[in-house]
């Protein structure tokens, strides 16, 4: 901590926050979030009805302890624990799901909330500036929007993290100019977030680790999906001249995404540059960097396991040569995703035979986590790929359905579907042609004949997208 800054403790900071305050927090990918002040709020005996806004998923101190205390009445953007999920589905918390790229603008300019206080985590702080820790998210926008600011200075993280940050603030509409990023691994900003010094109410010193990710070992289905994806990308690189010199990849967070990254080390990219332009650095990307298969990685968060975080921290200077962390309104910016011709690979809960994708609600009604940045990449990527196993529960539950009753990504957003069964490239297809390809190449054998029977029957209709809604609903009743 540099300069004469107001120092305080977590309990004093928590006591200053109004019981019905709108609180903006750092955190994305379960890392880089404040820990001490949320715990103090959870442990207080006050009757709190907070509105909480985060730009991504946060850790247990917020998503378990603070939620269990009953302190949160309204929540924006993303939740990730089973505790928060239950509170959301019981509607104890009024939850609004938002796209990762736009929530900063919505907080600042869109009238979504009237922010009172921002609580952020940092590895260094001085007069009018701080260096974020393991994620950035929408922190710069949140700090600008909030009336007051608390900073948790976390000594658990190395100061070397300052070398990975590239903090750039887009101009305000209607005078917003294009973001001047021409190289995904380039830098256009500073290593710190600036703030009006009079906003800073207090600095709380902490020494508490993130709630890091735990990735399961790849399953046989994961490996089969990876092999199918690898084969498709190999053919696509040869087919399309846009990939002659380089390929820019993005993977969604989770065990499958991490497994896919690891398996792509076996793909022959030739002499092409392989670049990651996404929102999350996962362990699989560290493996690709270590093997020399990746030129650079640009994201907004380092969503690593405890082992991955240890690897990063122990060799931060070397990794900082190739890793850049940016604000989410840059990392997930639609124009940059389009500019770099990103190949986006994201998973989902299910998709239907016409290519509509449900990423967030089981059986169309029970929220899992949130949409995160998947819509940013699915809609704006040069090539959008949805990858997931064709069935769950040892083949008892199909993830390819006649009609999904919740749609996060429409049939206009996804180009290719990949399961362990195969690949359905649906570009240029009519709805019925999409259905035929998806059933043939992606459906699990236990459900393929039923899906085909459904399609054969509804094709008798004189409709562009034929459906039997009552019959489609029966897939959710079993």
TrEMBL record:
UniProt organism field: Halogeometricum borinquense (strain ATCC 700274 / DSM 11551 / JCM 10706 / KCTC 4070 / PR3)
Pfam families registered for this protein in UniProt: AcetylCoA_hyd_C (PF13336), AcetylCoA_hydro (PF02550)
Location of the Acetyl-CoA hydrolase/transferase C-terminal domain: 308-454
Domain Acetyl-CoA hydrolase/transferase N-terminal: 9-205
Keywords attached to this entry: Hydrolase, Plasmid, Transferase
Family: Belongs to the acetyl-CoA hydrolase/transferase family.
GO molecular function: acetate CoA-transferase activity; acetyl-CoA hydrolase activity
Gene3D superfamilies hit by this protein: Acetyl-CoA hydrolase/transferase C-terminal domain (3.40.1080.20), Glutaconate Coenzyme A-transferase (3.40.1080.10)
PANTHER family the UniProt entry points to: ACETYL-COA HYDROLASE
This protein's name: Acetyl-CoA hydrolase
GO terms (BP aspect): acetate metabolic process
